[in-house]
């Protein structure tokens, strides 16, 4: 089962904003990540113009697949940007309006218990949950654990969490 293999083998995913930096720099970083063994990436739209994002997402997806990396593309304003990718990623703002699974292979960004429950009910592969930071910049693992502790989905910590946080993330249910 393709969905099960993700759950078992993928401990770290890359989440990238398409407009985080100039395209040449983005592609250089992506190629380095591919060379280092990246297996799964969520490509987010950011503030990129929809037509540009669609073209960029298709390019990134093609390069990723050529290296055995699965690319999930955010289903935002850019209709069809996920075509040619391995699947789609929904932002949390779209979950309350979900009436059916949006694609055979999809994931969701979740910020509440309701988001996690809806994503699970409609068959999401996994959820990403943003980390909160305390006033001193430390990650708020207790709040993360309280949110994801009852999730029926595998959950990845994002926004602030990195490879060095694997142990803490696992301890809180990621």
Helix content: 25-40%
* Cα-atom radius of gyration: 16 Å
Mean pLDDT: 84
What share of residues are in beta strands? 15-25%
In DSSP terms, counting alpha (H) and pi (I) runs of 4 or more, how many helices? 6
Intertermini distance? 21 Å
Structural class: alpha/beta
- What's the number of extended β-strand segments? 7
The major beta sheet can be summarized as: 7 strands, parallel
Question: Which strand order spans the largest sheet, edge to edge or round the barrel?
Answer: 1-2-3-4-5-6-7
Shape: globular
The poorly predicted ranges are 4-8
What is the H-and-E element order? HEHEHEEEHEHEH
Report on the architecture of this protein:
It is a single chain. With 174 residues, this protein is of the alpha/beta class. The protein is built from six helices and seven strands, in the order H-E-H-E-H-E-E-E-H-E-H-E-H. The chain has helices at residues 2-9, 23-35, 50-66, 113-121, 141-148, 166-171, and strands spanning 14-17, 40-44, 70-74, 87-90, 106-109, 127-130, 155-158. A seven-stranded parallel beta sheet has the order 1-2-3-4-5-6-7, with helices on one face. The longest helix has 17 residues, at 50-66. The radius of gyration is 16 Å and the shape is globular. The model is unreliable at 4-8 (pLDDT under 50).
